[in-house]
Write a structure and sequence with these properties.
The chain has 24 helices and no strands. The chain is an all-alpha fold and about 475 residues long. The chain is globular, with a radius of gyration of 22 Å.
């Protein structure tokens, strides 16, 4: 039996979020899964995500919201897609069929609709439905979390912020997950460059819940984006015991720690974090978040002139290679490409590009495939040209898209790898105009993130190359 702290049928109804099942156990398992999702951690005392998802199917095989949360979380992981995974596509179909055969609340029906839209790659349409749910049910945490993740995958920064802002007044301190709204809101604030407010809101969340790894993550972002590296290092170290238990997010928080070290030019220390935390966890979990972080980190170090050794790339390629044909998100694809290029697997790199080109021909309603046609194919080509030493061509492809890279999703900190790639391509280009553009980009970078040792190093390199 589930612990008494999780909500049963009566408790969900009391919160005006009734669930269409007569099984108290199923309701509690739904709460247990949602709790782990909000807290970014597998709770082994209840069997972790996998144990709870298995148990909820047993407790009530016909519990529609049990299927929505289980299948929805697999879709949100972006480790596979309904297009490529027939078993997952079948899970989506069965959930829809089950919903059509039952009397459900309008809220539950909308959840099914949103999950189905998302499974087809229609992220925007899914978000419209989740937002419809939140108008009438602002404390529906599953709708809020699914919308947040989808906005993140689309680079929809303002929506990421405003989605939480709209529901905040309806949440009260006695409600489950109340304090976790701070981290969620803080992240939207910092992605819209409201750094002081973001820091304040995240710290308020941590005062309520010190082990909220997402609030810690927001603070890490603020210090990264404002160039306060020493503050960031001190903060991450002082809080490590609080956030390292959030196993779903721990690797990403270690990645932020490593970014500070790369900024300071402490490459060996950064590589140690890569080996002992980021890649170790990536290899163990296969998590897409961990995988893109590992790819990005090695790429950044190489651009800094660090020899990361081909073995590291080859080990990482073993993780990314099975996902070459997924094309679940454009953001994943460009990071898989980093790994195949780093491992010198030209065949896989070409296969990934050609797969995207094929999907871009007839993207249909799939927002990620539409994105491949608009910018994704060109960005991948720019990366491949850079890898082959064709810096002028890389610059020609990438520079016109610099303000559209946000559409691939991720955070400003994650996408900064493309800002750095653009600067390196400009500096290494034989085209004099590109070289001047590179210096302009560095001046711009210095203006938005002053006192950056990394920017200073790039400026010195530009002077050495062109004088």
């Amino acid at each position: 039996m589930m612990a008494s702290s999780f909500r049963d049928c009566k408790a969900w109804s009391a919160e005006c979020l009734p669930l269409s099942t007569s099984s108290n156990e199923a309701c509690k398992l739904y709460d247990a899964i949602l709790t782990q999702y909000v807290k970014w951690r597998n709770d082994e005392t209840v069997g972790g995500f996998e144990g709870c998802i298995s148990a909820i199917q047993t407790a009530d095989p016909n519990f529609v919201m049990g299927h929505v949360i289980s299948t929805g979380l697999e879709l949100m992981s972006t480790g596979t897609s309904a297009r490529m995974n027939e078993r997952l596509a079948g899970d989506v179909r069965r959930t829809v069929e089950l919903a059509n055969s039952q009397v459900l609340s309008p809220r539950e029906r909308l959840h099914v609709e949103a999950m189905e839209q998302y499974s087809h790659g229609c992220f925007r349409k899914a978000c419209v439905v989740w937002e419809d749910i939140l108008v009438d049910h602002p404390t529906d945490m599953l709708a809020l979390k699914f919308a947040q993740d989808s906005y993140f995958y689309m680079g929809a920064q303002v929506q990421l912020r405003d989605s939480v802002a709209r529901v905040l007044p309806y949440w009260k301190p006695h409600m489950p997950f109340y304090s976790y709204l701070n981290g969620m809101y803080s992240f939207g604030l910092l992605e819209t460059r409201l750094y002081d407010q973001a820091l304040k809101v995240a710290m308020e969340g941590l005062a309520l819940t010190p082990d909220d790894a997402w609030s810690v993550h927001s603070v890490a972002h603020v210090y990264e984006m404002t160039g306060e590296v020493d503050k960031g290092l001190k903060f991450m170290e002082s809080r490590e015991k609080d956030w390292q238990g959030a196993d779903v997010l721990a690797s990403h928080n270690y990645w932020h720690w490593a970014l500070y070290l790369i900024e300071k030019g402490q490459y060996e220390a950064a590589l140690q974090i890569y080996d002992t935390q980021v890649f170790r966890r990536c290899k163990a979990t296969g998590s897409m978040l961990d995988t893109v972080d590992a790819s990005s980190m090695l790429c950044r170090l190489e651009m800094e002139g660090v020899c990361v050794e081909e073995d590291r790339w080859r080990e990482l390629f073993q993780v990314t290679q099975p996902h070459t044909d997924d094309h679940a998100t454009m953001f994943n694809d460009v990071h898989f490409l980093m790994a195949s290029l780093g491992a010198k697997e030209s065949g896989t790199s070409q296969r990934l590009l050609e797969g995207l080109q094929e999907l871009a021909k007839e993207p249909g309603d799939n927002q990620q495939h539409q994105l491949a046609r608009a910018i994704g194919v060109s960005i991948c080509q720019a990366m491949m040209e850079y890898n082959q030493g064709n810096y002028t061509r890389s610059m020609e492809l990438l520079y016109p898209l610099r303000y559209r890279v946000v559409e691939m999703g991720g955070s400003d900190a994650q996408r900064d790898v493309f800002n750095q790639l653009l600067i390196h391509a400009a500096m290494k280009s034989e085209n004099k105009h590109h070289q001047k553009l590179g210096r302009c980009l560095l001046v711009e970078r210095d203006a938005t993130k002053p006192n950056s040792p990394l920017t200073d190093r790039l400026m010195q390199r530009a002077l050495a190359l062109h004088n």
